């Protein structure tokens, strides 16, 4: 294979064609590790454009191992890296929303900067990651939920992981996960830990053909809708929420972010089980406000209070907990 010796100069924004070629060269191992590291670092220092983000995601999508999803499937996912070390909110939201009848193709990974990522916590709950991956398409069809472990679906990323460690800071690849869901979902609730980047990220989603999406960023730098205060929202396509929302807009109380501080996988798994068992408090309210937005996104409810009420019913009736049990036992 021919090795590209020079990557494009990212001092200025790249054209669509240059960006597409650059990320094809990166993912197909046609560039040296040194050239890739330098390119990613300089791109991050300058600040990625929506075109560059979209073309990086498009290149990753072209090389992923996909699954077939039912109509109306959504994803609820954050970019990670917010440094808040909270409990697994999007994982809990995925279970609650799926229990409300909306298919959820949950894309996720193991922890990178926290102690427990979605995969770690689900495994601690008893979900067999290997089996869940092999049966993802079937569980999504039969149960309305699946977990798409990033490592199983993005083989092109294996070479990039050590390069990202070498760079030692956030790069464009930290933004790619939610944009390359293997189920090709076109409706997404995406949390980004950079409020100043929400609009740019939303532009990338539009370029990628999203039918409807909500890009959310907690004002404190949280990569989900904050349960502690205001959240910036950028709406795309066939969904619209106010540009700034608070927990009270969904009819739930505020709690400090510290109240949903997470721990290791066992700690987070216990907290999630208690939530599904009906425990009230900060974790429940954070899940309710995020689930409310996801249900509005899916077209199941028309307002945040209605969505929060539906989500609360799924918890109180034990539907979300029962779904998790069926998922774990799925043969």
From TrEMBL:
Positions of anthranilate 2 binding: 164
**What does the UniProt cofactor note say?**
Binds 2 magnesium ions per monomer.
Tell me which residues bind Mg(2+) 1: 90, 224
Please state the Enzyme Commission number of this protein: 2.4.2.18
Which residues belong to any copy of the Glycosyl transferase family domain?
A: 73-320
Q: Where does Mg(2+) 2 bind?
A: 223-224
| Function (record text) | Catalyzes the transfer of the phosphoribosyl group of 5-phosphorylribose-1-pyrophosphate (PRPP) to anthranilate to yield N-(5'-phosphoribosyl)-anthranilate (PRA).
Task: Give the originating organism.
Answer: Sphingomonas citri
Statement: the UniProt record of this protein carries the keyword Transferase: yes
Q: Does the keyword Glycosyltransferase apply?
A: yes
Name of the featured protein = Anthranilate phosphoribosyltransferase
Q: Where along this sequence does the record place binding of anthranilate 1?
A: 78, 109
